[in-house]
Amino acid sequence: MLLRAGLVGIAGLMVVACSSPSGGLGDLTYGSGEGAVKSPSGASPTGPTIVADHSDAGATCVASAVTSKLTPVRLAFIFDKSGSMGQNGKWQAVTSALKDFFADANDVGVSTSLQYFPLDSDECNEQTYKTPEVMMRALPEPGAFASSMQSHDPNGGTPTLPALRGAISYAAAENAQHPAEKTFVVLVTDGEPNDCNSTVDNVSAEAASGVAKGVSTYVIGVGDSLANLDRIADGGGTKKAILVSTSNPAQAKDDFAKALQAVRGQAMCELGIPDPGNGKT
Known about the structure:
Blueprint: E1 2-4, E2 12-19, E3 29-30, E4 37-38, E5 51-52, E6 60-67, E7 73-80, H1 90-102, E8 110-117, H2 127-130, E9 134-138, H3 144-150, H4 160-177, E10 182-189, H5 200-212, E11 217-222, H6 229-235, E12 242-244, H7 249-267, E13 270-272
Parallel strand pairs: 7-8, 7-10, 10-11, 11-12
Antiparallel strand pairs: 1-13, 2-3, 2-6, 4-5, 8-9
Helix pairs in contact: 1-7, 4-5, 5-6
């Protein structure tokens, strides 16, 4: 069973049972139970300390701790390096923020891969994008991603359809190989689809087909007048694109960094909830 936890990290879940003086256990419940069990501040996120509070002299309380960790996530980035990304400082802002994100020590539990579009060889073939340039690896990773981005410059068009197809195929394979984790596609683009027969409609449909395969797609739009990217995010099961304005180039890096944190927070928010069993609640 999974619980969607939003942006709030939960260290563990307490299973609490109180009995009458005769010793019969009551129903197991999740939560602290008023006045029954307290978890002091500073409890370890990998194993909370539980303290029994016997303030109610008429009952004997038994507490046990059940550790519940956030489900690790895998983010497959498909990154637009079209010629327009070289305008208004977009390339510098985005690559700088990505380097910081990939090297962030707070990214424990997150793995990422990185592929670009368009690629020079056979840019309309989804197989071109199916194998990332930087394969999936645990963060923080300060070297491989930075080195990869330094070897690229903005050029070409926006063949979003084959690029997304390749990324979804890769993410679905990652899910099959790592069933205890969850893989998402993160599409970073500064424009609407317009090459290799790519349109907003067919890219949105492709994102929806990914959801049917267990792969949701986040969309980060870099630039202004990109409201149509919401349709791709909605098709991909993430409702709305996160848009980063470039009207103020000096602010674009910080805003893109916030977009990355939002994706990480939304993706990494499922907890495994243990089954109390025996008909208990």
